[in-house]
Amino acid sequence: MIGLAIFKRLARLVAPTLLNTAVFMSDVLTLADRFNRQACRFESNGSKDLKSILIAMVVGLFAASDAALAQQALLAGRPDVGAMVFKQCMACHQVGSSARNGIGPVLNGVIGRRAGSYPGYGYSSANKNSGLVWDYQTLASYLRAPAEVVPGTKMIFFGLKKSQDVADVIAYLQQFDGNGKQTSENAPMDGTAKLE
Questions:
Q1: CB count, 10 Å around CB of 14?
Q2: Are the beta carbons of 96 and 182 closer than 8 angstroms?
Q3: pLDDT tens readout for residues 5-37
Q4: Model pTM?
Q5: Left (φ > 0), alpha (ψ -120 to 50) or beta: where does 112 sit?
Q6: What architecture does CATH give domain 79-186?
Q7: Where in the chain are the domains?
Q8: What's the sign of the alpha-carbon dihedral 43, 45, 47, 48?
Q9: What's the rounded Cα separation, in Å, for the pair 105 and 100?
């Protein structure tokens, strides 16, 4: 059925940006199955009922996705906890006024910076040519799975698995300006790092 094909394609396009879980896709496919059964039942009544069902399903999908995104975006980053989580990163990276490039580049002022651009560090061509800017969403994705975001990166790290750890590290890093000065002015007004 045309309506079912459109619904399944829409679900596959939207789902990866909402939640990277099999549960979500399973729920969407279950809904698509129910839609298919309902559409077959209403097909004899004309296309008006079929269109109404399709519209209701799509609106329901977007309402559920907005709730999931809102919950993810509201993870409050705690800079003090982020400092502890950042200890995992300190074998390669430094922040602060005396930070120097090491195995990895200095992360002062990383938020908003173009990937592969910190002076004096020998980046991989994959990182230099990625075209990425380290905004909240990109940095959050990278901290979860560096090799997936920048295939060919020199960074050998399997990623932070907990969304709260990611938010905490971003909140911690955000405190450091490009010169390594740590101030509360660099942190968000409400003290949180929002994952968008």
A1: 15
A2: yes
A3: 666 665 665 554 444 444 455 555 565 666 666
A4: 0.59
A5: left
A6: Orthogonal Bundle (1.10)
A7: 2-73, 79-186
A8: negative
A9: 8
